[in-house]
Write a structure and sequence with these properties.
18 strands; metal-binding; 2 domains; NAD(P)-bd_dom_sf; zinc; 346 residues; 6-stranded parallel beta sheet; alpha/beta; Quinone Oxidoreductase, Chain A, domain 1; 7-stranded mixed beta sheet; binds zinc ion; Rossmann fold
Length: 346
């Protein structure tokens, strides 16, 4: 075992995040990565604000962060990775043994150890630290010319590419995205990159609607504007595919009306625990409701798309702050009237 003391962004409890030294350990089979930067995600914000993210409750201090990139400081003994290589880190650590993993559905693995998650005890520490030890399979090298601040969007983009794939072929399709935070906005870009001809977004925030248009939405509508939204319900429904990225109960229950017969709804927003759902139109229109959770091989696809410039995520980057300002950065990232994605620099 090797050992090192590094500064890390640690959440102790709700509203108690500190940048503190901690010891990390790694074996010869692992890779030591010097972290360059990382994006603050919804789950980091939830741990900061509530000490929990969905069902995962903090029981001990945990290093935050699952969207990060870095440079290999020490390569694993038996891998093709090299010291100095720039890598995006896939935060997924599926068991690889269970039936779901064997079927290629590693994202659904019941023993998934996802970095920066309090789902299991002891918690799985995240990547918001000067250095982090990972397994070689988690490292996706990327080209010298690519910008780290762009590649740091690989994890949220992977979530969105997975959601787009859940919907099947999008070529020529009309698409609605409800919720235009970083995930909704990246779904807009991923749907357009996948051939959708029309992508409309909704969000109650004017700032989010402007970002949606910057990311390629042909229109961005306030969902409370019934004059506009009622037109989507005419003739059985306007959209072929709807992506629900807000988690808001109103948005979830509104989508069946806006989806054309035989259309598809993909749910990727998490929020309202329960929703009054119009089952009638769902069945008479044979609308398919599909869940979307994290990603599998889409992580590597996301790195390649970002490297090639197929998607430009930079309109979503609102601020870059030093790791010592983590509390301030989390507060800023929590306020969607001021920020979309905030990155920490290590
Ligand atoms: Zn994320
Ligand atoms: Zn598994």
């Amino acid at each position: 075992m090797h050992q090192k003391t590094v500064n890390a962004v640690i959440v102790n409890a709700a509203h108690d995040v500190r940048c503190e030294p901690r010891d990390i350990e790694w074996s010869d089979d692992q890779v030591l990565v010097r972290v360059e930067r990382g994006g603050i995600c919804g789950s980091d914000i939830h741990y900061f604000q509530h000490g929990r993210a969905g069902m995962s409750v903090l029981k001990e201090p945990m290093v935050l962060g699952h969207e990060f990139v870095g440079v290999i400081e020490q390569a694993a003994a038996n891998s093709s990775l090299k010291v100095g290589q720039r890598v995006a880190i896939n935060p997924s650590q599926p068991c690889t043994q269970c039936a779901l993993c064997q079927e290629g559905k590693q994202n659904l693995c019941r023993s998934m150890r996802f970095m920066g998650s309090a789902q299991f005890f002891p918690h799985v520490n995240g990547g918001f630290a000067q250095y982090v030890a990972v397994n070689p399979q988690q490292c996706v090298p990327y080209g010298e010319k690519a910008d780290a601040k762009i590649i740091a969007f690989a994890e949220p983009l992977a979530v969105c590419i997975h959601a787009v794939r859940q919907a099947g072929a999008l070529t020529g399709k009309r698409v609605l995205v409800t919720g235009a935070g970083p995930i909704g906005c990246l779904v807009i870009a991923a749907a357009l990159a996948s051939g959708a001809t029309e992508v409309v977004a909704t969000d109650i925030s004017e700032r989010c609607r402007a970002l949606a248009e910057e990311m390629g939405a042909s229109a961005a509508v306030d969902p409370r504007d019934e004059v506009k939204t009622s037109m989507w319900a005419e003739n059985g429904g306007h959209f072929d595919v709807c992506f629900e990225a807000s988690g808001a109960a109103m948005a979830v229950s509104s989508l069946v009306a806006f989806t054309r017969p035989g259309g598809i709804i993909v749910q990727l927003g998490m929020g309202a625990p329960e929703v009054n759902y119009p089952i009638g139109p769902l069945l008479v229109k044979e609308v398919q409701l599909r869940g979307s959770f994290r990603f599998t091989s889409e992580f590597t696809t996301a790195v390649r798309w970002l490297e090639q410039g197929k998607i430009d995520p930079l309109p979503l980057l609102s601020a870059e702050m030093d790791m010592h300002e983590a509390t301030h950065a989390l507060e800023l990232a929590s306020d969607k009237e001021r920020a979309a994605k905030v990155q920490l620099i290590f």
